[in-house]
């Protein structure tokens, strides 16, 4: 485990390499790493230094990812490593993403053993989460192939900065793409995350074309990304490019890490957003980080019947017959089979 020859790079002059795994497309000099801190150039060969190196492992409800329309009520074997290609000011996993423990302090987990543990612990899927999975590429690729053979679903919890070519490589072993849409402004992505918006939108469209199940998450930060105009644009973009059946999660901000200059998102603002999303045409908006709220549930977008009831991270199927609303017969976008 550890040093593994990377995929998705090209060799340039003087032992310099160019990584094409995420849209930073770092040019990396000999002996250096890219922005993510974990892809290392040694004598003109790029190495993935965290292959099979684990910082966190847990059996989580799939609802915690959050994924609401993918294997609801099931468990997901969740793994993370260290490093991130974004350095967001409000990161809630900064102790992992900023690699403060160092790679040496991590545990080893072979792909085969990960799949074995997922199955033994009654999980229906494996999620690569906690830190950015796209920069871990070769490991989810190896484990994902085994997981799919074993009948498990596979999930990226991602900031979406993966390049199209890397996404095309991993997509055959991936079932779900849970992507952050942190804002709908280039300015936000540049200033807060040190990245760009458009490549994230482009890759999400590719994920859809490749048939992945997609859900979006927007952390609503007061005064930063929550203006009515920006949120309307974001919602409209999702409807037009990913489809109105794409579940959209709007989650509550709590002050953290370096962003302590503002309070939590008012619940009334989140409720407005939910209602606005429904009005514009999103079939399944939901709220997150709010305790026991009626807008955590899934309702039939046609007749309003309660279909999936949620409390905390647990789900209860209520009025669904397979993929149809029991009351009006509307077809509901829902993945119920990992295979
Ligand atoms: S994964 Fe992204 S941040 Fe890391 S080296 Fe490659 S291009 Fe740079």
Terminal Cα span: 28 Å
- Elements, N to C (H/E): EEEEEEEEEHEHEHEHEHHEHEHEEEEEE
What is the number of helices? 8
* Radius of gyration over all CA atoms, rounded: 20 Å
According to DSSP, the number of beta strands is 21
Mean pLDDT: 93
Small-molecule binders here are:
iron/sulfur cluster
Determine the structural class based on helices, strands and strand pairing.
alpha/beta
Q: Poorly predicted ranges (pLDDT <50, ≥5 residues)?
A: none
Report the major sheet.
8 strands, mixed
Q: Helical content, roughly?
A: 10-25%
Question: How would you describe this protein?
Answer:
- By secondary structure, the protein is α/β, with parallel strands linked by helices.
- Helix content is 24%, strand content 26%.
- The chain contains eight helices and 21 strands.
- α7 (228-241) links the parallel β14 and β15.
- α2 (111-120) packs across α3 (138-149) and α7 packs across α8 (267-280).
- The relative contact order is 0.12.
- The mean pLDDT is 93.
- It binds iron/sulfur cluster.
- Iron/sulfur cluster binds at residues 19, 21-22, 24-26, 34-36, 39, 85, 135.
